UniProtKB/TrEMBL annotation:
Known catalytic reactions: 4-amino-4-deoxychorismate = 4-aminobenzoate + pyruvate + H(+)
Highest rank taxon of the organism: Bacteria
Subunit structure: Homodimer.
EC number(s) per entry: 4.1.3.38
Molecular-function GO terms, alphabetical: 4-amino-4-deoxychorismate lyase activity; pyridoxal phosphate binding
Database matches in CDD domains: ADCL_like
KW Lyase (keyword) present: yes
GO biological process: 4-aminobenzoate biosynthetic process; folic acid biosynthetic process
Top EC class, one word: lyase
GO CC terms in record: cytosol
Family: Belongs to the class-IV pyridoxal-phosphate-dependent aminotransferase family.
Keywords, in A-Z order: Folate biosynthesis, Lyase, Pyridoxal phosphate
Organism for this UniProt entry: Methylophilus rhizosphaerae
Protein known as: aminodeoxychorismate lyase
Amino acid sequence: MTTVRYCINGKLVSGIAPTNRGFAYGDGVFRTMRLLDGELQDWPQHYQTLVADCSKIQIVCPSADLLMQDFRLLVSSAAAEEAASGIIKIIITRGEGARGYAPPAICEPTRVLVQSPLPVYPAAIYQQGVALYTCQTRLAQQPLLAGIKHLNRLENVLARAELKDPRFFDGLLRDYDGHVIEAVSGNLLIQKENVIMTPALDQCGVAGVMRQKIMDWYRTHGQPVAVTAISLEQLLAADAVVIANSVYGVLQVTQIDDHVMATDHWAKELRSHLHYIIH
């Protein structure tokens, strides 16, 4: 698949009004998920997260049925092979409004679905793991927006622009207190002396669906994941580190900057537990 397709408010178009608040102010949220065998992977979890994210910024999330109608329309326009796999990004904005920051009293949310090809990852990242670069860009603390995937992603853009060395798969983001928060495009989990930990996201960062799936799996099996502040020193001393998102799944971190990490088969085990299919 090479074509990027769009569905906006139930129509197969690619244009959006300049007065749309998502375009003008980043006033909205989004989530990204895999399309495999014609079905959205982890759709119930993604929709639940969209609803929660919208609620935090006082947008009424469109119904799951309406979004699924848009999805079916979008993939129906593709050839059979292209309709079966890809990446689906769902964007919900507050809708159109007049100039100025004040949200309109009455506003119809805008629904945008984008279908693009599945990224082609080298097999080595699943077999040998990946290296991370510690970004100089820091995440600002804003509890009101912490955890949600809002459309203001300039910190991630600036951090990703730092990654010029092809040895590094992704960047490592910290806050201004020096706590490790996440990767540029995924969440972090660490293992230390049989304790599973993930950075707290109550001040900044994005709470991804794959992170939640891992936490749920451990909780179901009697080992809750500790959500806590983690320093860079703690991260480097971990017995194992993985990064996770809904596209590449779970990857073992084998190096951070010039520091070689302890490695095991944790990422492979998690992919197996979660039935993640490597494409």
